Amino acid sequence: MDKPSASVIGKSIASNKSRDQVFAVIGLLATFVGMLTLAALLFDLASDGLARIKPHFFTSFPSRFAGQAGILSSWVGTILVMIVTALAAVPIGIGAGVYLEEYAPKNWFTALIEINIANLAGVPSIVYGLMALGLFVYQFKFGQSILSAGLTLALLILPIIIVATRESLRAVPGSMREAAYALGATKWQTTSDHVLPYSMGGILTGVIIGLSRAIGETAPLITIGALTFIAFLPDAPVKAEFPFISFEWLWSPYSVMPIQMFNWVSRPQAEFHLNAAATGLILMAMTLAMNAVAIYFRYRFRKRIKW
């Protein structure tokens, strides 16, 4: 067989470099489109609602007067609902992903579970709201409470976290597991001391995506009875008397920031639309702050592994 000439090899290398450059340009353009879209959205919200972001906007309850209305009940409700969501979804999602990838036998039953988890990630959020209405509100008697809302959003993002966890675990080289087994490590020692730390960056990425979706959801919360107007706060989680920690807030009625925005946008007065823009700007800031915390922890995990 004749060997390719130097000119043919040179043309092939030049062609591959050209393809790489074209792909790099396309990827850069796609990145700029996303960045410009986000910048345009932030600029539009800031131009409309930035003037409304003042201290009393955070410390006032909703009102029928736009100038006096605030988001106190909705931002407190958002934080409490997201706490319940994170505490329910993150451990269960990561645990399920670890079991399915590292422990579960590879048979038709686990394959069926995997298919269903992948399909659940694409189910419309309103369907989760209908399921939660029958399960949490009526069957378990949790009522239209913060607990019901947090568990509903936890079910919504569970498939995202499970899929991200499994993909991160698959990215860990098999040689790492074999080396741990060769040194006498058990299955759990290998998973907890080697596989999980190396895959934690990808797992936290899935957690970020899931929580970012949950914090902006409206349809499932309206379905289970979230209030569009609420002029009181839930019971405080921490109290001065023993036992100092209270869980009464889990059973309190609630409102969240996306629902408050929906309420204001549906009104005809332009002043309420400005309030909605300010709320949207604050909601995006909360989302970015939450993502920044998760990215920081991901960076720490990767840095620890590197060194």
- What's the helix count? 11
Unreliable spans: none
Structural class: mainly alpha
Secondary-structure element string = HHHHHHHHHHH
Helix amount:
over 70%
CATH superfamily of the largest domain: MetI-like
**N-C termini distance:** 49 Å
Largest sheet: none
Provide the β-strand percentage band. Answer: under 5%
How many individual β-strands?
Answer: 0
Evaluate the radius of gyration: 24 Å
Task: Please indicate the count of domains.
Answer: 2
Gross CATH architecture of the largest domain: Orthogonal Bundle
Describe the structure.
The protein has eleven helices and no strands. By secondary structure, the protein is mostly helical. It has two domains: 1-52; 54-306, Orthogonal Bundle (MetI-like fold). The mean pLDDT is 84.
Quick gist of this model?
The chain has eleven helices and no strands. With 307 residues, it is mainly alpha-helical.
Which helices and strands, and how do they pair?
Blueprint (H helix, E strand, L loop, with lengths): L5 H44 L5 H5 L12 H32 L4 H13 L4 H15 L6 H25 L3 H9 L4 H29 L3 H5 L33 H9 L4 H37 L1
